[in-house]
């Protein structure tokens, strides 16, 4: 089974939380039994999360060797210069090493998204912009660290696609079952890459 879920802001990508008081988790959204997240989104990020009951499929979705692109809509503080966008396109150096090059597009007009609760920080004296950022890796808080490295702090981060799987019209907190890759359905031993 493979499920697409639109993870709301502030929800953990796990089914339990031992903190006090407990934070919202995936358990509150009526997801099918025995699925778990194939990858993660930070609690302060939103959007597409894939869940599956197939460990091999989860590995293929998350392993960077398969080069499965992840597409994000990113609201950043500041007005991006061409030099900043080019730096993201070429890859930036983070504390854990250089990133792979990213595909980056300035989105004008901004994307139409659901309202976030609470709203992203808004300062009338500081401009903001929206980017579409496509990466092929999945380091911890990578997109946020990449935009910060070029002087564009992230205000809001929404993942809209993983490979060919997209968020489409899913509302925050909603989920739908997806078709499995054909090799998974057939039980093939040599499964193809997604790229």
Number of helices: 4
Q: Percent helix among the residues?
A: 10-25%
Amino- and carboxy-terminal Cα gap: 21 Å
User: In CATH terms, what is the architecture of the largest domain?
Assistant: 2-Layer Sandwich
Strand content: 25-35%
Fourth-tier CATH superfamily name of the largest domain: Pseudouridine synthase I, catalytic domain, N-terminal subdomain
Shape label: globular
Low-confidence segments:
185-195
- CATH fold topology of the largest domain: Alpha-Beta Plaits
C-alpha Rg (nearest Å) = 17 Å
- Sheet/helix structural class: alpha+beta
Question: Could you describe the 3D structure shown?
Answer:
With 195 residues, the protein is of the alpha+beta class. The protein has 2 domains: 1-66 and 164-195, Pseudouridine synthase I, catalytic domain, N-terminal subdomain (Alpha-Beta Plaits), CATH 3.30.70; 69-162, Alpha-Beta Plaits (2-Layer Sandwich). The chain is 15% helix and 28% strand. It contains 4 helices and 11 strands, in the order βββαβαββββαβββα. The strands form 2 sheets. Strands 1, 2, 3, 4, 7, 8, 9, 10 and 11 form a 9-stranded mixed beta sheet that branches. The protein has a two-stranded antiparallel ribbon with strand order 5-6. A hairpin with an 8-residue loop joins strand 2 and strand 3 (46-52). The two termini are 21 Å apart. Mean pLDDT is 89; it is low at 185-195.
């Amino acid at each position: 089974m493979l499920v697409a879920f639109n993870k709301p802001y502030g929800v953990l990508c796990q089914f339990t939380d031992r903190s006090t008081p407990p934070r919202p988790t995936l358990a509150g959204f009526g997801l099918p039994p025995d699925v778990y997240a194939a990858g993660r989104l930070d609690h302060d990020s939103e959007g597409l999360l894939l869940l599956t009951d197939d460990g091999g499929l989860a590995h293929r979705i998350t392993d960077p060797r398969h080069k499965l692109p992840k597409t994000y809509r990113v609201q950043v503080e500041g007005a991006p210069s061409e030099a900043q966008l080019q730096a993201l396109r070429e890859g930036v150096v983070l504390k854990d090493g250089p990133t792979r090059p990213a595909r980056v597009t300035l989105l004008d007009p901004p994307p139409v998204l659901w309202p976030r609760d609470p709203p992203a920080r808004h300062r009338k004296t500081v401009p903001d912009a929206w980017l579409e950022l496509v990466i092929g890796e999945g380091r911890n808080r990578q997109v946020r660290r990449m935009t910060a490295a070029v002087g564009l702090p992230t205000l809001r981060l929404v993942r809209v696609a993983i490979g060919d799987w997209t968020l489409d019209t899913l509302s925050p907190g909603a989920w739908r079952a997806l078709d499995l890759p054909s090799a998974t359905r057939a039980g093939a031993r040599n499964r193809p890459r997604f790229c």
